[in-house]
Write a structure and sequence with these properties.
The protein is mainly alpha-helical. It has four helices and two strands. The longest helix is centred in the middle third of the chain and has 35 residues. The chain is elongated, with a radius of gyration of 18 Å. The two termini are 33 Å apart.
Length: 160
């Protein structure tokens, strides 16, 4: 399932979604926390990205593992394999950041919704979630960069 799309390695195609959706989630989540007056305009996009970004990160990790297995089966070894494993470690960490970020964003959306079915929460919930979201967003941005750079370096590092 995660090996190929139209004859190309799925990972090569899926990573582009991660590079778009994770930074969008991070920036939008920080805006949602920092600009309370804009929350009613940002909530729908934040909610969608809180689901889409972790899903794309999951698919990228799974397709990356399938791609790595295919490369190992073809006899790849040495330095390039070390670079691939480094890239994989960064991707795993990114996934472990994006999932809690998505959950925290959804929790903040619920906490600030004003919906009558949402119980009255302690006053500290919103600021604590806000701090967690900002920290996770910064970490996500750093790891999108590290993961993307290490992957690009493994593929293109010796080309030029």
């Amino acid at each position: 399932m995660f090996e190929e799309i139209l004859g190309l390695p799925a990972h090569v195609l899926v990573v582009h979604a991660v590079v778009v959706f994770v930074p969008l989630l991070a920036v939008l989540a920080i805006a949602y926390v920092g600009l309370p007056r804009w929350r009613s305009r940002l909530d729908w996009a934040a909610g969608i990205l809180a689901v889409v970004a972790p899903v794309t990160a999951f698919v990228a990790v799974e397709s990356g593992e399938a791609f790595t297995d295919a490369l190992v089966a073809r006899g790849f070894q040495g330095q390039i394999l070390n670079q691939i494993f480094e890239h994989s470690r960064y991707g795993d960490i990114l996934f472990r950041i994006v999932v809690p970020l998505g959950i925290a964003v959804i929790l903040l959306l619920v906490a600030t919704s004003g919906h009558p079915r949402v119980p009255r929460l302690p006053a500290l919930v919103t600021p604590v979630l806000g701090v967690a979201i900002v920290a996770l967003s910064i970490a996500a941005l750093v790891y999108v960069y590290l993961t993307g750079h290490s992957g690009a370096d493994a593929v293109w590092g010796t080309t030029l």
